[in-house]
Structure formats: structure tokens, C-alpha cells
Amino acid sequence: MADALQRYLERTPASRRLHEQAREVMPGGDTRSSAWWAPYPIFVDRGEGCRIWDVDGNVYLDFLNNYTSLVLGHAHPAVLEAVGRELPRGTAYAAPLAAQVELAAMLVRRVPSVERVRFCNSGTEATLYALRAARAFTGRQRFIKVEGGFHGTHDAVEVSVAPPVDAAGPADAPVPVPASAGLPRHVADDVIVVPFGDVAAVERAFARHPGEIAALILEPLPGGFGYIVPPSGYLAGVRDAVRRGGALLIFDEVQTLRLSRGGAQEYYRVMPDLTAMGKIIGGGFPVGAFGGRRDVMDLFDPTRPGALHHSGTFNGNRATMAAGAAVLRVLDQAQIDRLNGLGDRLRAGLREAVHDAGVTAQITGAGSFASVLLTDRPVTGYRARAAVPAALQSRLHLHLLNRGIHLMPRGSLSLCTPMGDAEIEACAVAVGDALREMRPEIEQIAPRLLAG
Ligand SMILES: Cc1ncc(COP(=O)(O)O)c(C=O)c1O
User: What are the strands, taking DSSP E only, across 344-415?
Assistant: First the structure.
């Protein structure tokens, strides 16, 4: 490990200097917890296609893609052209734009359950408003979420995101655990937490709280614990249980919209009532959107008495709308099929690389998402993911950075359209080489992962 750290320090002196300056003005030198890692993150100078360059001139294949949002990669010509054309006309005016109608119409055409849509500035706002709409529509307070599910950072969803397992109750009936200090005292009281993949747990929740549950929110392919494929029949089972319980089903498709033209709901053929969106639909600019059934979304219709208020100074701003529409024009089903095929080859290549390195690990994911999880236990939900040694995952991350692979510190990756077989191959080779070099560290921390 000392070697990998030493190499990282030697390769990144300019990042280190900037980090030291940053510490003088931002706590820990950081303004986004998920983009920080020890000893300090690389500072990026520029990105183009599927590569980024740090301020020291090191080049990385970008398998992070701003947490899956840059599905066309960096500085895509179609996005630059669209934004460049629009920006000279100003950016935001507190007035509706034709560009909003265009992007909204694209989403309504693409995403099967979305009949009406509203824009906001982040995925966090998208889940906040989807939950608020569900509460207003049903007149109920409580909601169900999946243990380990991440839905942004507003108070209501900051519950049981990555709870310490010894404080989280039984695996089949988890207790809600506030995810941060500083939350309202009773934030967990309205949240019922269920394990991923377990329809019976959802049914039990409705039986225990009849007439009280407004919604169930989940990511169809949960990213927080490794892009875990839903067991066969799970999403449909949840759909039925939520309908029978008189609540609304919210799919958080902030990440999964890239799985097909119509997102995970089309990919898995299960229709939610409401959908939270973000990331790819902003073309690299701040974005969120929530949409769904017309009768629910009409709660926001300002011509209605008692309409729900939904504001935001930069909602539907020109740059975001233009960039988002440019991405969706390029990202047709053929592009997505190609990307998902690359994803299949990446996961196969990673499995082979891990095997050849003599290490036991789980390769999870679907479509253009993948994770390398250093554990011998199949990861089917949050509890198994929580058992993965965090120290090993961070070391793998550092080893891969040293090999020019940029990915999530937690071992997850996503693809972008400028990638092809050469990049997939480079990633698998880097993972194999990193694991071979890590054998002494694995021996120390989790010796059972070493075969033979
Ligand atoms: C599934 C999911 N929901 C919500 C969010 C929050 O989105 P944002 O960071 O735009 O607020 C994220 C962000 O990573 C996410 O992955």
C-alpha cells in the first residue's frame, strides 16, 4: 500500500498543491463529499471524450463520468454546439422557454410512465418533489425505502443510506437509521426500511401500517450498493404490493435512465407512478426532473386551487435544456444497445481478470454499469455490500488511479459512448494488474479472497 500511495503522491504534486490551497477556504478542501478521497482527490484540468487530464498532465480513462451523468463523455460536439448556439441569448429569465417544452416532450415520449414532467436542478430535488407529490396525492405521511438506497441529500431520504449494520436491526426487518447528524429529530419516524429484493417485507410494511403509507421509493438497479440486478419478479411484485396498499410507486431513475430509451421501467417492464430523473438529461449541466401520472402531476398545475408550489431560480434554464436535448437526440436505442453490449463485455472481462489474478470478487451490474466488489459473498443487497472491506476497496481505487483508470471510490463504473472495446480491455487489464499487486494487502485484510 505504501508503494501505491507513494506513487500517487509522486504523480500528483500539482493536485496536492491545489488541495492545500483548497483547505484554506473549504472544509477539508472539498465541496462534494462523493468526489473526495484520501489523501486528496486529483484536480481535473480538462475532459474530452472518454478521457480526463489532471492538472499534473496525467490522463485517465473516465469510468466515473461524473457519477454516470456524462453518457456521451466529455465535451461532446453535439452538446457544445447546442449550448454554444443558445448561450449568447442569455441563460435564465424567470419565464418559460420553448426549449423546456422540447426536452419535456422528449422525456414524455421516451419514458413510458411519464405523462407530465417538471424540471428542477438536481436529483435531490427530483426525489424531494416526487415524495411531496405522493404525500399530497394520498394524504398520507409515511414512505418505504430500501436499505442502502441513495436518493440524494434532502432530509427525508437521508435515512438508512449506509447504516452501521450493528445499529440497523434484523436483516429482514431493518430499523430506520438517520444517515447524518443535523437531521430533524423525527426524520426517521416516517420511514419504513425494507431489504432490497424482498416483496414480502413490503407486504408486511403495508399490513403493519394500513392507510398510512404514501409511497415506496427505490432505484430499480440500486447503485449505492453496487448496481444490484433486481431478482426476477421483484419489481413487478413491489408494483402490485404498492398498488394494493393504496400508495404510489416512485422509481428513482436519476442514474438508471440510461438503461434504455425509456429507462429502467422500460428495461424491466414495470411502470411506476412517479419517476425522479437527473444526470444524463442535463448534458453535463445541473439538472433534475420529476414526472409521472398526469393525475398526480396535475397537483402542480398553477391554475388549480391549492396547487403545490414548486419553484427554483434555475429550473429549466437554457443551457441545461439545450444540453439535455442534445444528449437525448444522440442517445437513441441503437447507441444504448451498443453501450449495454460493451457493459456485458466489460463485466465478462472483469470476471476473467479477477479470476486470472487469483482473487475472489463479485462483478455486479447491468447495462452500462458495473462494480468490482472485493468479497466472496454474492452481493444481493445492502447487508452483503456492507460486509465488503472498505479499506480494500479504497486501495483498489488508488491502484487503479495509478494505472489511469478513474472510477468511483466504492468500486463502481459506468461507460460512455466514446468508449469501445479497447477501453473495456484496458480497464479489465488494469483491474487484473492492480489485484495482482494488491495480493499482500488482500492477504492481510481478507486472506480468504486469495485462491490457492
Ligand atoms: C439514484 C440517485 N438519486 C438521487 C441522486 C441525487 O442527485 P443529485 O446529486 O443531482 O442531487 C443521485 C446522485 O448521485 C443518485 O445516484
Answer: 362-364, 369-373, 405-406, 412-414
Extents of the domains making up the chain: 2-71+333-449, 77-330
Taking only the tens place, the pLDDT of each residue in 348-366 is: 999 999 999 999 999 999 9
The architecture of the domain spanning 77-330 is 3-Layer(aba) Sandwich (3.40)
Q: Decide: pTM greater than 0.70.
A: yes
Answer yes or no: are the C-beta atoms of 226 and 251 closer than 8 Å. no
Q: What is the pLDDT of residues 143-170, one digit of tens each?
A: 999 999 999 999 999 999 999 999 999 9
Rama region for 261: left / alpha / beta (φ>0; ψ in -120 to 50; rest): alpha
Task: Give the ligand 1 atom nearest the CA of 253.
Answer: 1
> Looking at ligand 1, which residue's alpha carbon is closest to its atom 2?
151
CA separation for the pair 340, 58 (Å, rounded): 28
Q: Within 6 Å (CB) of ligand 1, which residues are found?
A: 67, 122-124, 127, 150-152, 219, 223, 252, 254-255, 278, 288
The number of the ligand 1 atom at minimal distance from the alpha carbon of 286 is 10
Q: Provide CB contacts within 8 A for 160, sequence distance 6+.
A: 145, 147, 148, 149, 168, 174, 176, 177, 179, 191, 193
Q: Cis before residue 39, ω within 30 degrees of 0?
A: yes
77-330 has the same fold as 2-71+333-449 = no
Please name the CATH architecture into which domain 2-71+333-449 falls.
Alpha-Beta Complex (3.90)
